[in-house]
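Components:
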Amino acid sequence: MPGYLTLPKDEFKGRVARLQSNLAAAGLGGVLLIQNTDRYYFTGTLQSGFVVIPVKGDPLVAVRKDYDRAVAESAWPVTKLASTRGLAHLVRETFGELPSPLGMEYDVLPVKQAKMMEKLFEGAEFADASHQIMYTRAIKSEEEIDAIRIACEQVDRAVSMVAGIVKPGMTERELSARIEYELRLSGHAGRIEMRGFNQWIFYGHVLSGRGGGEPSGFDMPTSGIGASPFISQGASDKVIEIGDAITVDLMGSNGGYLCDQTRLFSLGELKEPLKGAFAAAVAIEEEVAAMARPGVSASELYEKAVELADATPYGKNFLGDGAKVSFVGHGLGVEVDEYPFLARGFKMPLEEGMVFALEPKFIFRDLGAVGIEDTYVVRADGAEQLTTSPKSLITVE
Amino acid sequence: MPGYLTLPKDEFKGRVARLQSNLAAAGLGGVLLIQNTDRYYFTGTLQSGFVVIPVKGDPLVAVRKDYDRAVAESAWPVTKLASTRGLAHLVRETFGELPSPLGMEYDVLPVKQAKMMEKLFEGAEFADASHQIMYTRAIKSEEEIDAIRIACEQVDRAVSMVAGIVKPGMTERELSARIEYELRLSGHAGRIEMRGFNQWIFYGHVLSGRGGGEPSGFDMPTSGIGASPFISQGASDKVIEIGDAITVDLMGSNGGYLCDQTRLFSLGELKEPLKGAFAAAVAIEEEVAAMARPGVSASELYEKAVELADATPYGKNFLGDGAKVSFVGHGLGVEVDEYPFLARGFKMPLEEGMVFALEPKFIFRDLGAVGIEDTYVVRADGAEQLTTSPKSLITVE
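Structure:
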């Protein structure tokens, strides 16, 4: 089926081997995976159930439903699980004893589920394996990078259409709806997964003028007004006007693999300070991206971006006007917010195969937001850009 | 701004009073709310921070960002919170002592967040308040019901368009994309929140022929093939063909308030057993909806639906072919999966103001799915239907 992304089964074997090496280094006996994304990432199937990966040996993929679909999709043999109650017995039968300590996904697993597991595996020693899981997922294979490239093509197609559509009097929502429609026709699945608790996103943000300067509670440099106090980010019913800076911050999605890109449009000539700040953002992106190579820490990229921004007249508007976010980029794969975070204090060194979005943005509360964003993969000799849209400001007359 | 739903401040006062009465009945001293939806529901703002509601007295709304936006949106006074570390001090200062036991949202709160709170409020006694929160949220005000009505109008508009668009050779995804575009133009926010862990949904499902019969790991009677093994539900690239039963299961969303409706289309004459099963689904919905009134337990509705389905030739296909879901409906509000669940063993009696979707569906693994779904509110004298689209099978020649 065109666009129905399936990865070769070997892909999943490499992932499990990498996780096992990370578990061994942390002294963990194994992990119990329950969250959708992690189960998918290590097995190839999202079908409902549990995955146990011991520090050595093959995983147990126990599926409640749909068993037939899981068998067809999984890179590992699948065991039918009649009920959650049967899991403890199945795990002990499979591995002889319970892998211990048994890591769980404490960053995403609700307390209720964790307590259920503690009761089910009475007396077991549990630990947090979030870091080992996220670190394993940070290194992308060429298969994954190719999937992301296709997601980047979706975004490029949609963005190349915007200049022909946007006009004064249109609302942010109307423009956003038209772009989303185009993305869907390109194969975009619509759903964007975020790992961070309380973090939501739709396809991305289409923001204009003052709407772009609107802060929100979400941990993003730009958020917008949104559709209501509840869906308080993204496109709103604000009308796009002459002089507005229009942020088109979109994610492509190919089989769940994401690409994150921001381009800036202007309806009529863009005025200062927005024009100068946009040029500064592009220059910061170029300089920071040129630093990204194996061994450089993710936080160094953030510090560099802040240093460069502070040397412009717009430093106080960098990454927020007032409340600022403390990152200038983030990893992405099948979730938006993966390792590495190009953030204050996130000292993890970059490695080959890490994919990240770099997004220097300046926010002017009363004028709007300007900035740029591209997706990169870390190669042995530097960062390769995966997004392909031209970076210049697009002025629509 | 048109469509930017804000509720009167009194609305939130009634919600807090209802929660407090439920907390008192359960012997809880208060709740600490962290999840987006719950904070929004009790305050009117989703801006980032924490909400503490004591069993008596006014809530504390502590906001990190955006403070100004929270002040504008919240029904309660807002306190600025510089960092999470300051929360324990602020709570003790506000209430004199920590409300105890302090309920948390164990059904949605990740372990990592809960452990952080246990450390922050060292020595405090915590408890699960999920049930009290969900039970409070189950009773809708007339303001909420009106918001849901508007969401139902969105869906009706989109559905009324389908017969003019669908044609053989179109993919499920193309049809779905066109419908989603229409919904967005009607004010739909795009995002649909589900509370259940590992449960995802997009606008809903557009499924056709064998694609409708495809089971998945999600806890829904119909799921479809989806866009990939990762996004394994909803519309796929399957081509719609003559003879296909086409399920259009859509959610409207107005300021986050949802409406859930399913209608059935057929490209050409629908064949048996699908035709007979659809008629049976409509009859089951009518009979079960007629039973819904205050005092009747939610599980009785499920049991009645199963009893009625078993009396047809299609009993084994009811709510699944093989693996079945054990519910025939679910509450909804700002999340899809609210109380009451019309499910096996869910004995909660219906009350005035509860809103639920009722969805009798028959699934034939090799032929597809047929069924219907409408959204109702429980009134003193019975269920009032909020969805407005005609219920008949729509045959497109």
